[in-house]
Design goal:
Elements: E1 2-6, H1 11-23, E2 28-33, E3 53-57, H2 63-71, E4 76-79, H3 86-91, H4 94-113, E5 118-124, H5 147-166, E6 170-175, E7 177-179, H6 188-197, E8 202-205, E9 211-216, H7 217-230, E10 236-239, E11 244-246, H8 247-258, E12 265-268, H9 283-289, H10 297-310, H11 312-320, H12 322-333
Parallel strand pairs: 1-2, 1-4, 2-3, 4-5, 5-6, 6-10, 7-9, 8-12
Antiparallel strand pairs: 9-11
Helix pairs in contact: 1-7, 2-4, 4-5, 6-8
This protein binds nicotinamide-adenine-dinucleotide and 2'deoxy-thymidine-5'-diphospho-alpha-D-glucose.
Nicotinamide-adenine-dinucleotide (NAD) binds at residues 6-7, 9-13, 32-36, 38-39, 59-61, 80-84, 99, 103, 122, 124, 152, 175, 177-178, 184.
């Protein structure tokens, strides 16, 4: 099977490529990635020389390039490429519209013209917005609250429209918060781990009682594999682990694993429009595709902390580059 993976140099995409090349000796992967600040070919060093793997640098919104790639013959497109950080979308929404909305439409159009067998859109639980009690099903209305989630919700609607109007065989996945190796250190977990190792303050937005459902990235990859292989066109699949934590609970777990004190925590101004709680009913993907998460929170979190301890050079390089300027700006801004 020939797969085009977009955004494969980012956190989840690179984990996915490593995972499926390991699981499927007969799959071939072309990774189309623009290499924005979040794309890093170092994440793919283990597959770089694999003859079944090819990297193409480019923008998913580049019609000619995307058209040429899909014309080469491809069975499945799986779209990870996105601007993915909520705080950045609050500073400037434009790149989110370009990549997440326009880029997705360019991919859909090319998939339509080249008769792609399956198109998997990697979306997010954030499209449903916040929920005080209970959990969102795939039928819950979309209620995006940040420019990031609004751009992802727009892409979801375009995907469903391309299925209903043109029959492009799109399946959409909406996953909860991922953690694991190669996550860019602007996101909460790698930020906490790396700041704690450096004895730097840990910025907690608002009262720190916002709740997220945390899933190990390998469980997400495994769920995506099930959707690629057995997902129904036109269907949406929630992916979650049910492992809900407040941000403060999570941060204390990480500090405990690292043997660092709680007084590194620093409460800072809240994120504007900050969603209070995300929670998903992930029953459909279990019932219909036989997927279930396999990594308990404590074990996976300990493995993740260990990975960042063993791979200091990886995150130190990122934190000392242009990201340092962004972090200072974020911090001063608060
Ligand atoms: P990431 O920011 O780590 O990686 C994004 C990748 O996309 C980078 O390699 C970047 O270079 C690439 N990219 C950005 N714009 C591009 C463009 N125009 N053309 C080609 N490539 C481009 O993101 P991530 O955390 O790995 O998330 C991947 C996908 O999963 C996103 O679509 C995101 O919305 C979704 N998602 C993420 C999470 C999470 O917890 N991280 C949860 C649910 C869904
Ligand atoms: O739910 C899925 C989403 O999870 C994905 O779609 C997004 O791409 C991904 O970035 C993530 O979004 P969040 O906004 O939930 O993740 P983030 O790591 O930015 O923040 C997690 C929580 O921690 C959130 O409540 C905000 C808070 N936070 C975050 C940072 C970076 C802090 O308190 N301090 C921080 O410095």
């Amino acid at each position: 099977m020939k797969i085009v993976v977009t955004g494969g140099a980012g956190f989840i995409g690179s984990n996915f490529i490593g995972y499926i090349l390991g699981e499927h000796p007969d799959w071939e992967v072309t990774n189309l990635d623009k290499l924005t600040y979040a794309g890093n070919l170092e994440n793919l060093k283990d597959v770089h020389d694999d003859p079944r793997y090819r990297f193409v640098r480019g923008d998913i919104a580049d019609r000619d390039l995307v058209g040429r790639l899909l014309a080469e013959g491809c069975d499945v497109v799986i779209n990870f490429a996105a601007e993915s950080h909520v705080d950045r979308s609050i500073m400037d929404a434009s790149p989110f519209i370009h990549t997440n909305v326009v880029g997705t439409q360019v991919l859909l159009e090319a998939a339509r013209h080249h008769g792609i067998r399956k198109f998997v859109q990697v979306s997010t639980d954030e499209v449903y917005g916040s929920i005080a009690q209970g959990s969102f099903t795939e039928e819950s209305p979309l209620c995006a609250n940040s420019p990031y989630s609004a751009s992802k919700a727009s892409a979801d609607l375009l995907c469903l429209a391309y299925w209903r109007t043109y029959g492009v065989p799109v399946s959409i996945t909406r996953c909860s918060n991922n953690f694991g190796p190669y996550q860019f250190p602007e996101k909460l977990i790698p930020l906490v781990i790396s700041n704690a190792i450096e004895n730097r303050p840990i910025p907690v937005y608002g009262d720190g009682l916002n709740v997220r459902d945390w899933i190990y990235v390998q469980d997400h990859c495994c769920a995506l594999e099930a959707v690629v292989e057995r997902g129904t066109p036109g269907e949406v699949y929630n992916i979650g682990s049910g492992q809900e934590k407040t941000n403060l609970e999570l941060i204390h777990t990480l500090l405990g694993l690292l043997g660092k004190p709680g007084d590194l925590i620093e409460f800072v101004a809240d994120r504007p429009g900050h969603d209070r709680r995300y929670a998903l009913d992930a029953g459909r993907i279990g019932r219909e595709l036989g997927w279930a998460p396999g990594h308990p929170f404590e074990e996976a979190m300990a493995a993740t902390v260990e990975w960042y301890l063993q791979n200091e050079a990886w995150w130190r390089r990122i934190k000392s580059g242009e990201y340092a300027e962004y972090y200072e700006r974020m911090y001063l801004h608060r």
